[in-house]
Write a structure and sequence with these properties.
The structure holds two protein chains of two kinds. Chain A is mainly alpha-helical. Chain A has 16 helices and five strands. In chain A, the strands form two sheets. A three-stranded antiparallel beta sheet of chain A has the order 1-2-3. A two-stranded antiparallel sheet of chain A has the order 4-5. The N terminus of chain A is likely disordered. By secondary structure, chain B is α+β, with helices and mostly antiparallel strands. Classes of the chains: A mainly alpha, B alpha+beta.
Chain lengths: 297, 255
Amino acid sequence: MSSQKLKAGSAHLIGRDAIAAKGYWQTYRLLLLRRLVQITTLGLFLLGPVAGVWLLKGNLSSSQILEAVPLSDPFVYLQTLIAGHRGETTMLIGAAIVAVFYLLVGGRSYCSWVCPINPVTDLSGWLGRRLGIGRKVSISRWLRYWILALSLLLPAITGMVVWELVNPVSLLHRGIIFGMGMGWYFIGAIFLFDLFVLPKGWCGHICPMGAFYSLVGKFSPLRVKASKRDACNDCMDCFAVCPEPQVIKPALKGKEKGVGPVILSPNCTNCGRCIDICSVNVFEYGSRVANLMENQP
Amino acid sequence: MSEREANNRNKDGRNRRQFLTDSARGLCSMGLISVGLVSYGRQAQSHAPEAIRPPGALPEHEFLSACLRCGLCVEDCPYDTLKLAQLTDPVANGTPYFVARDVPCEMCEDIPCVGACPSGALDKSLDNIDDARMGLAVLIDRETCLNVLGLRCDVCYRVCPLIEDAITLKLERNPRTGSHALFIPTVHSDHCTGCGKCEAACVLDEAAIKVLPIDLAKGSLGKHYRLGWEEKEKAGHSLMPDLIKLPTRLPESSQ
């Protein structure tokens, strides 16, 4: 796991081995599926204002399915609650539905499968790897939890929902549906920050929404597991494409230390890039209880 | 083996140092970010007076903590009156508002915007749109208003959904001609909903009648203040039992 190996890993074209072994489709299918889900989600929201078909109404902060089932973002809901607003029951039910859903499928699945910022930072990351731009600064990945604490503490002190004034996730999604204006510059700034200052900077270090969802999915049953970790050939491609590479190591390389093959870190976004990019199919989706089975004598 | 222990200790030492550095960094960035966020938040609390909140909106401070910025009110507004504030608009980012001069509120009887609100930022207890108080129309410029100049424009009065209640024409003598009347558009705050139809319809290049936030538009009497004639009516008689008899102060010669 030395840095030399990392360098050697990124020197060759990422995914070349996988394409050679499995073909393009098998190497990119989860990525394509993820883009499809992202586009479909956005498309369903846009269908109303554009075509007058109201399957999904509102935006990611709060919405309605077929004008009947309420959905609310639990993070946004929590902020208003802490700011002192005793909301309608609709909002509570909506937030509960969303929270339970992500509790089941993995909290940060929101980040990789739904969040509109994800394609922006993914593109930035891809471009950065292509151009060979390394990190210029080092920021702790814990910073997002500090900012999460801040975004939940400040409403209690000031009575203002401050994070939603700047939250680029809701800003972008709202902007695409209702008009973006100068908001594009903000999104552009995040793209450039990720590209030139800190790769995976926004989603992996700063975003308190991701931090919040990581806590929602702390005990999610759906996980990625390195089932065939014995077959790993140390090509490092999974580390290169993973938005949260630190989560892979314990599961992939932890056999000698008695660590199970399931990626248990709540910051794994269940994006499945590691599953696709691995030429020897080490990874697969599975359940977190797989670790218990493994550890049984 | 001992080498390994030393390594571990080194690693622990480095980790502790890193933890402290990270914490210090975190605290510093937290301080900076909170100062930024709170000052931006404070600024966002005072919005441009021409930006009017939808009917039933809670008082601005509460509204900002309640609104989810989901846009359901905007999507349910049949007249495209409402819009969501964009990043550099003079209104808190993402919150719904309208500009009366552009598109006024049509005062739908079923108030769909309020019905759509999932958070209660638009108060569901508003069931009659005539009770909405989005703002208050004010005849803000008496120098250009055609009616005040002595002409019969009357447009603001005619378009008012609560004509004769929210806006009346108050007759005054026209001192310029000496023989005509001025029909002064006069807004009554106990009926005006702040829908802004008058402002939108004003025929001037810049409207002489404008909807303002109520706290900007209204004065307020001191709580101790009593109006004599109202008190008299309430009591049924004058509150001063005997009229004070004043001494005559005419010069003696004319008495």
